[in-house]
Amino acid sequence: MTQWFPASPALWQGRDDSAEAANALRLFQTVTLSSDFTPEAYRGQIAFLGFACDEGVKRNQGRPGAAGAPDALRKALANLASHHGHERLVDLGNVVAPTADLEGAQQALREAVRACQQAGVRTFVLGGGHETAFGHGAGVLDAFPDERTGIINLDAHLDLRHADRATSGTPFRQLALLCEEQQREFHYACLGVSRAANTQALWDEAQRRGVTVVEDVHCDSAREQMAHFIDGVDKIYLTIDLDVLPVWEMPAVSAPAALGVPLATIMRIVEPLCRSGKLQAVDMVEFNPRFDDDGRAVRTAARLGWQIAHWWR
């Protein structure tokens, strides 16, 4: 596969407490590292797949740096305790975008995700800017052509922009157009949306496409809407733009949220998705290590990723 590189074992390091007890383990001791892209060898497992790209952020006039996120997130995850569910994790390396060819990078990610999903491997993609979502989502749609696939985006932004070329602000309009091309329904829900950060044109586009929208100020009461959405689909692709979190919890993103949705509330939204038995794919995007001076933001992101893997059924 072009643009693919294995993850460095040096990223998966941590404190060794195994002398204390046989089950005193951390993620670096239970994750499987693959030196080749061979998803067929890991049926039934959950694969970390990095998307080292922020070309979409650059095109969207954002703060670049998210290309360094996948490896930073691995380092933060490595030393967390390994509990039930974490033994299923395998690291299948990074899809890297070394040039400005965003479309080529998205296609490489799409093909990698499709291969994983068709091999019975669920995908946990570490972005990257939110341009990650088109490659990841397209791969999931390709793998399940006869299934009703629901896309749930936790995000301050609708990311339904019209643009001459792909950016981090266009992925869900691209996925909507792909659904039209594949002659299937577009099931999209966006939670945590900041009305202040989305123009009326974007709200109109969301309404035209039948998007389920929950504003940041209403996320505490979103469980019923989510339950209804989950019931209406067969597979779920969950994408989390970390700028959905408040700036004091997540300052290291391209567009920090002045209000945002607190991590504890995000956890309550995510848990039923993870336990639904329908969750097929997850990604976390937009973390930018350049703006994480004290390591607080990467720890927040890692904690969220750790919890998802623990709950994922």
From TrEMBL:
Keywords recorded for this protein, A-Z: Histidine metabolism, Hydrolase, Manganese, Metal-binding
GO molecular function, one term: agmatinase activity
Free-text cofactor note: Binds 2 manganese ions per subunit.
Residues involved in Mn(2+) 1 binding: 130, 155, 157, 159, 241, 243
UniProt xrefs under Gene3D superfamilies: Ureohydrolase domain
SUPFAM superfamilies: Arginase/deacetylase (SSF52768)
Catalyzed reactions per annotation: N-formimidoyl-L-glutamate + H2O = formamide + L-glutamate
InterPro entries found in the cross-reference section: HutG, Ureohydrolase, Ureohydrolase_dom_sf
NCBIfam families hit by this protein: hutG (TIGR01227)
Identification of the protein by name: Formimidoylglutamase
Annotated organism of origin: Citrobacter amalonaticus
Gene designation per UniProt: hutG
